[in-house]
Specification:
With 501 residues, the protein is mainly α. It has helices spanning 2-10, 14-39, 47-62, 66-81, 90-101, 108-126, 135-148, 150-169, 180-195, 200-219, 226-239, 244-258, 333-346, 349-366, 372-386, 397-423, 429-432, 448-459, 464-481, 496-500, and strands at 278-283, 292-297, 316-317, 323-326. It contains 20 helices and 4 strands.
Length: 501
């Protein structure tokens, strides 16, 4: 078996190895779960066993298998009823809710709501603080409603949030103060609801609610993380408001202003497991002295004070009084792409120009390398601006064509730059594997789609100069289509859409 693993990972076929790992991991999980549920003596579980069950519950929840999660949960409850000393906390029930939130079962949000109502009932009956509703349980319930049906679930999510806020303010559950994760969940819900609606008035109301919620974070002393900013930026982008790109851009500038004290940056992926309550701050020193990565461990009881949770600090100081910058405010490529997405949906000349300017400034001013998706959204802004259905009061097709050509040239420079960078660290597969094209973080390449968007913009400029440029671009595509080596090989083969333009 070990030899087979070595052969798989030494071969060129990564898909075969991934399939083998997934299959055997699932088989292992099923076997361990069956052993825990059916093979261990009833009434003999220990807290170490409960901890093991919690890990298994997490694994099943991430796979969207809530029935397996509840099977493990029921096994522990049955053991309690047989007289063992084990006990459960709100966190275990929250994992079950998370499993339903990630599942495709009909009525999954209703089941998550039922579990949460049961948590409140058990706390009222026992007054056991370990069974009190927590920030995690409320946030998970909000996520469940939004995942099931954003258009209808957003109303239920809002009710859940209002219940959570009132329970915190009136002291019923004083430790359930909404945190940055809760806010970003609800903001994401507003964005999804807007994206599914064609009602302009409804979209405007949702934007106002999202903005009001975002502003409440300052009033409630909750630090705005990069994920909160990204969520409200997406709300603007989905709204298709004329000023949406500039609202999103202002938020980007606000984020940059908040991180000017930090001299270094380290990116962290948002943990899927909200139980990992660790605050991470970079101690910034503009004088160039040594920097220190600061961790504040707030894990432990599920009802720990939310003022210590991730993203709930306005400002931190060390023992010397130096400022510690919140590392989660440094913009990522997602925040920049949110602005570009807003530009693509706005369909105005101003947004088209903003998209070009932002692409040019990303590597030089902000230190963020644009990816393939960044350029495609910027080019889509040009297509939308030049369309007869654009929101421009005057014809800007000629200016849009010039901007589209500028973006194409910037894409060519970025593609070559990133090709050289990745070739030096042996990441050529990112360019040679065509399956990577659609990945949201795929490196920049001058693809056929990029050319076709520029051709579509040029086609709307009725003069000989634009036709000449189009002929030159098609010739470039034909030359690059079958070139060998380099960052552009084999990705720009002309198609029917090319010649139709």
């Amino acid at each position: 078996e070990k030899k087979h693993i070595v052969e798989l990972f030494s071969s060129e076929s990564s898909s075969e190895s991934a399939t083998w790992v997934a299959k055997n991991e699932s088989t292992w999980l099923e076997e361990v779960t069956d052993n825990f549920v059916n093979q261990r003596p009833m009434g003999a579980l220990t807290m170490a066993d409960v901890q093991e069950a919690r890990s298994l519950m997490h694994a099943w929840a991430k796979r969207g298998e809530p029935l397996q999660v509840e099977l493990l949960l029921k096994r522990i409850i049955d053991d309690q009823n047989c007289g063992s000393d084990v006990f459960l906390s709100t966190r275990h029930y929250s994992i079950a809710m998370d499993g339903w939130a990630k599942s495709d079962y009909e009525g999954s949000a209703e089941r998550a709501q039922e579990i949460h109502d049961n948590i409140k009932k058990m706390h009222e009956e026992t007054q056991n603080s370990a069974l009190a509703p927590s920030v995690i349980s409320y946030s998970t319930l909000i996520s469940a409603w939004i995942r099931q049906d954003p258009s209808r679930g957003i109303e239920q999510a809002e009710r859940t949030f209002e219940e959570m806020k009132e329970a915190w303010l009136n002291g019923t559950y004083p430790l359930v103060k909404p945190d940055a994760s809760t806010i970003s969940q609800l903001l994401n819900g507003y964005g999804k609801a807007i994206a599914l609606s064609n009602d302009l008035d409804y979209c405007n109301r949702q934007v106002e609610r999202a903005q009001k919620l975002f502003d409440y974070m300052t009033e409630w002393n909750i630090t705005k993380t990069v994920f909160c900013y990204g969520a409200i930026q997406n709300v603007y982008a989905q709204s298709q408001l004329i000023d949406a790109p500039f609202r999103a851009m202002k938020l980007l500038d606000d984020m940059m202003n908040e991180t000017t004290t930090a001299t270094k940056f380290q990116a962290f992926d948002e943990a899927e497991d909200n139980s990992e309550n660790i605050d991470i701050y970079w101690k910034g020193n503009i004088n160039g002295d040594d920097d220190t990565l600061m961790f504040k461990d707030t894990s432990g009881d599920s009802n720990a004070s939310t003022s210590d949770r991730n993203g709930s600090h306005d400002e931190k100081y060390d023992s010397d009084g130096d400022t510690i910058s919140n590392i989660f405010l440094r913009p990522t490529i997602v925040n920049f792409n949110s602005v570009l997405n807003a530009c693509a949906k706005s369909a105005t000349f101003e947004s088209c120009r903003l998209a070009r300017d932002l692409l040019e400034l990303m590597p030089s001013k902000y230190g963020v390398e644009p990816v393939q998706l960044s350029f495609m959204m910027a080019l889509q802004a040009c297509v939308a601006c030049s369309s007869p259905r654009s929101k421009n009061k005057t014809d800007h097709s000629h200016e849009c064509a010039e901007i589209a050509m500028d973006i194409l040239h910037e894409l060519e420079r970025a593609a070559e730059r990133q090709w050289q960078s990745r070739s030096s660290v042996n990441q050529i597969s990112l360019y040679t594997d065509h399956s990577n094209f659609q990945h949201k973080n795929a490196p920049a390449r001058v693809t056929r789609d990029a050319y076709n968007k520029v051709l579509a913009v040029l086609a709307r400029v009725s003069n000989l100069e634009s036709i000449t440029k189009m002929e030159e671009l098609v010739k470039q595509m034909e030359e690059k289509a079958f070139s060998s080596g380099g960052s552009q090989s084999g990705v720009a083969i002309p198609n029917r859409r090319t010649y139709n333009s």
